[in-house]
Amino acid sequence: MTNKLFCFGLGFSARLVADQLREDGWKIAGTTRSADKARLLATQGIEPFVFGDDQPVDDIRSALDGVTHVLVSAPPGGEGDPVIRHHGADLAALPEGTWIGYLSTTGVYGDRNGGEVTEEDDLLPSGKRGRRRVAAEKAWFDLGRRHGLCVHSFRLAGIYGPGRNALETVRSGRARRIVKPGQVFSRIHVEDIAQTVLASIRKPDCGAVYNVCDDDAAPPQDVIAYACGLLGVDPPAEEDFATAKLSPMAASFYEDNKRVSNARIKDELGVTLRYPDYRAGLMALLDGILAKIDAEQEIV
């Protein structure tokens, strides 16, 4: 029997998982928010469906026919997890043991004043987004326990990768070096997210939770400075967080200060990170950025 993955939300992280499984011969189906994007997915060998907070999947039973694995990256909203709200009963009807992966966030741990957190620590989210994630995780694990589904949660650190990284931020002129003494963030390259999810698919452990981050929680201003060095440009001046003008959304990211342990994905899933720190990740992305710059200069 051919395995079939259904993705609720074919975004930055889930799409890479889907593409790698499709190369291995899996059938892939998934959702996007617009009919135009759905038509594009169809040309790429993916069975597409439209789904949103207020738009359930049409004919969901047909959409889930033959599905062996489900990956969920759709974020929760004010009314809870949209997938469970619209399609919890449909998922409950899947065969017992169906693998389900939920892409969550390390924001569920809240602020630890720079201390380390593991998967065993209490969930103490600082803000509304973190509280919604905690509630969504609980809803997924409850669904799994009630209906025999093999649910896993992947708590992702700050995601970067092609097209979404500090090099691009510097190149666009949007880079800032905001300094909050003692502040660190954990990060993860999208390829390492994909390999972790794939490792779980190969070695399911129903009810497991995994922190997905690299080895080096680092101050954000250091990442920008390193990206500037790679591009050969002067870094922007440092700005004191206490006086920096930030949007409420940008300021909220500084509410949490913690180091996240990734020991479990290494010990239990056998993951060897391709990009163990931001320096390795940005170095690997540099050639793509330089190629873009060369192409733009040729056009000019």
UniProtKB/TrEMBL annotation:
Looking up InterPro entries in the UniProt record yields: Epimerase_deHydtase, NAD(P)-bd_dom_sf
Q: Which CDD domains match?
A: SDR_a4
State if 4Fe-4S is listed as a keyword. Answer: no
- Mind telling me which Pfam families this protein's record contains? Epimerase
Going by the UniProt record, its keywords in alphabetical order are: NAD
Q: What region holds the NAD-dependent epimerase/dehydratase domain?
A: 102-213
The UniProt entry's coiled-coil ranges are none
Q: What is the lineage of its organism?
A: Bacteria, Pseudomonadati, Pseudomonadota, Alphaproteobacteria, Rhodospirillales
Q: Which domain of life is it from?
A: Bacteria
Q: What is the name listed in the Swiss-Prot or TrEMBL entry for this protein?
A: NAD(P)-dependent oxidoreductase
